[in-house]
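Q: My collaborator sent me two sequences in one message, no labels, and asked for predicted structures for both. Can we handle them in order? The first one she listed is below.
A: Yes, handling them in the order given. First sequence, followed by its structure tokens:
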Amino acid sequence: LTGRGLDGLLLEACINHRLLYESAQYHNAVFVGYDPEGKARYAAIRGTVGSYKGEASGSDKRYAFSLCLPRQPPIVHVFESAIDLLSYATLEHRAGRDWRGDALLSLAGVFQRKREKVLPVALKQFLEDHPSVKTVCLHLDNDAVGRSAAHGIMEALADKPYQVIDNPPTHGKDVNDQLRWELQINKKECER
């Protein structure tokens, strides 16, 4: 994961808080999501070599991977994946900003919207569990699916008491591309 530019201290903090571990058999990265009572309810599995992506059997996407240190966060930053979430935290840390001040939520993937005004289940549950949130900041991908999902979320929240900000990555397809671009890791891949 450090090869993707993720901050080692941030990864260590996730490991220490049982949010991230390495699977024994395949050495995949496993990102764990918890319910408000602290019970593990979701696990995203990402290959550390290759492009494998999956979820642990029985995972509940309502409780996707998140970092929420404030008890009553006023802002939630929303990402398609755990790696994009950690990339954003790394960018904030590198810029000297405290990434722990706001909540960060992975949606555990998004899909091309088929209906209007439908919230992803992870965001819907997070907003129900955190009524203090007033601002939703979207950092979804710069591809057709990510842009469609962002528009769907904005439509779904248009008549709700939230300020919704669409803030896609400035370089590349996703937030990890933006991080790698800033660190000049595989820069050619990130300049699309």
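Q: And the one she listed second?
A: Here it is, processed independently of the first:
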Amino acid sequence: QFMVVIPPDFSKKLVRGERPSLLITVDATDPSATGNAMAALSALVPQALAHDLPGPLAQRRPVPAAFDVRVHRRYNPEGLSRYNIVPGLIGTILTMTMVMLTALAMTRERERGTMENLLATPVRPSEVMVGKILPYVVMGYVQLLVILVAAFVLFQVPMVGSFPLLLTMIGVFIVANLGVGFTFSTVARNQLQAMQLTFFFFLPSMLLSGFMFPFRAMPLWAQYVGEVLPLTHFLRIVRGILLKGNHASQLWTEVWPMLAFLLVAGFVALRRYRQTLD
């Protein structure tokens, strides 16, 4: 999140009193996470060498700073909060709608009695799961289109990276959340329980993913829980593509946790599918 660049002749210029410059590069995609640290940089220079300037001269009057600190805000030079919030809304909206729609749809079929007819057919559980998920994948991309149009037209959020890569990553995220909704539908007995399970998953995702609070400012246990949630990794992916122009190789560390979450959710859903009427 921060990178300190020290010129090769920094020490020599410092000894000569030439007041060299020290460059601090900041990942400013999340202004709330870096704002306090950047404000503290103004007090860094006079305090850094306070104990290294002895003598009566240093004690009687303030001594000019021995070096300059130049801060470079990367990816968000103006510190606009909408560059951080709007991409995060893509993940939070898709999380709530995809999980809720799938959980309610499957539970509604059980309440209406159509699930018994479906279970009586020779259709495999994996085929039922794919058939139920695909329509909501299309709905997820329609929601994505609306959000992206609002982001680009109304909020002027930049698009630095690859748009096809963004669509691919969003597809993985949508399927992961649909797998969670399918799992909830095998647990809930009615639509009210499905709604409660949806919010039980959505609220921790929103609070512990880094969307509302800086991720590194949260307690350690909260960071461990947040690393399990797919929204945490998706926020890093979408901000990296939109604001930084990250490539696929740079996103792999965030993609594989979402794939692992998808496999676990799909496995649990398929295992419980045949037991939904017991």
